[in-house]
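[agent] plan:
  1. take the single chain provided in the ticket
  2. run structure prediction with default settings
  3. attach structure tokens to the ticket
  4. add a short note for the reviewer (M.T.)
[agent] executing step 1
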Amino acid sequence: MEPTDKATNTVSGNGHAERTKQRAQTTAHDTVDRAARGVHDTVDRLADAATRATSSFGEKGEQFAETKERWMAQTRTYVQTHPVASIGIAVAAGFLLSRLLHSDSH
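[agent] step 2 finished; step 3 output follows
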């Protein structure tokens, strides 16, 4: 084998190693890009879900506030029309509550 053949084989071998390195880099780059797209899609789905949940909580909060106001108005009306019965109910509820709390502490 002549010296030039040896040099050609070395250069040829280096070219193969360079092409292999470039293919590996391209494959790694493509893999990272796919993973980044997947993560981005996941983050988008989570953000959409959080937005829907926040909206739902807002609506539920409004419904709860409306229900509370309606119950308070009904209670006010009942107390105004039945003051003696309201006092009796309050005393009975207080008695039961104190018995429940007292039995928990022993």
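[agent] step 4 note for reviewer: Residues 3-81 form the longest helix (79 residues).
[agent] ticket updated
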